Fold this protein.
Amino acid sequence: MFKKFINSSYLALLNHPLGVIFYLCFWFFVAFFYDSYQTSIFLLLTLFIIFCETFTESKSNLIQNYKSLKNLWVGFFGLIFYIFLNFIFKDGIENYLIFFTNNSLYISLTTALIALVCARKLYDFNYFHHFLAAISFSISFWFIFGIFLAIFYGSFDFLFDISSSMLDSCVLSLWLCSAGIFSLFLLGNFTSCNFHKIFVFILNTFSILYIIMLFTYGLGALFNLLENLSIVHLCLWFGSFLLINLWINLSFYKIKKSLLYAFFIVVLSLNIFVFYAIIIRITQYGFTPERLAVLALNLWLLIANYLSVFKQKIALKFSFYLLALMALFLGFFANYISFSSQKYQLQKLENSIHSLNLDYIQSRQYYNQIKSIKNTLHNLNKNYNNNYSFDDFLKTYNLTHLKPQKIEFHNMSKKFHPKYSKLKENYDEVLFDFIAGSSDFKYFMKIDDNTLYFLLQEKELLKLENFDKILKNYQENSQLSYKLNNGSSLIFIPLEFNINIKGQITFFKTHIFIKNTK
């Protein structure tokens, strides 16, 4: 195995003479200058160099390979690409820190370059599962090396007492830098390694369990037994996971056509649901970069699903090229499309207001909608002015005559008889029939001007303003969950409350469940 690892690393030097140097330098930058703008740029440059070298032919001799004129051409194109990167990322470079960026263009370029490299190197299914297995092998050995390094350094520090923050940082940087060494063979011939069989077995076992988990959640959410998360994103993730699992098995097994057709129908059903849900969302609220990304990824999944079932010879390569194209499109045009769409939504909303006879509360609701769209426009284009007050709204639509409506309070008194259902987790402390204004040996709860305070030995753990609104909207048998200031969690199950004619809470009794931080 070690001999094959060395041989594959040597082949990486032959196939990517410049790419290997840039790849190792990139991991050096990650280890010692991870928060540098140039580290982020270096990632894109490294991927571009490796992509360019996939079009060149390597020689059998390493020295001749480095003397080849092809390196000058690759270096020349790399220099142009580096200048291009510094031009498009010349503003706000602090937002492009590697692994921590929210910049859509940077993420799109990275995704596109990775997809292009995969399209050139993983051109059929025989390479795909070998590649994933090799990545798992590389990561495993990297973590094992980290464990041994930590044990050795910890023991050395214990015996000789040499610890310092600088030395700790250097050891951590050494471990990060070693990732480049342990993954270098991925640029060579990783198909000679014979660990892919156990990898496919482990992956299929995991896939079956994962599919059962997702299917169980889907049933639970359908019958309101579990909390509803984003079903659109869940379906998209589920479909993508199934597709990658199909790719791995196509590279290892010969799958019957009936199973392939069943797979196609399942993923197609997920595609149709996602298209239906996201198009309704876009029709109502317009485009955003996130909705465009969901739409593009679902379109990619639809095409890749069709190719993987009916056009398997070109499926893998074409799918990666298509992913790269979509990522580039989103990177350069998603913000522009979203900005135009949101401006149209704003214009449509503003035009509709002129024909309405609004009262004060309705005016507030429409103002909040306009303000939300303006904030979205500002996030898409920082030059867009989102300073817009409620007074500006009233003046624009000649509604300055409207006055805040006086809220008439009525006495409200309610008692609850909760059914004792099992809580989601075990709690360390339970306070039954706890009344506001009373205390036990540790905790005290009071309500002042409709603000609830929960204290531990005079230390404030929880403050809930406008608690009267929470009680008015409370549904029997539901649980009010909160995070305390000390990291613990708390659940209220209200039993009784009273709000007087002035709208003030005069009485509140509840069960309290506290989960302490371990």
Observations:
- The radius of gyration is 30 Å.
- The chain has 16 helices and eight strands.
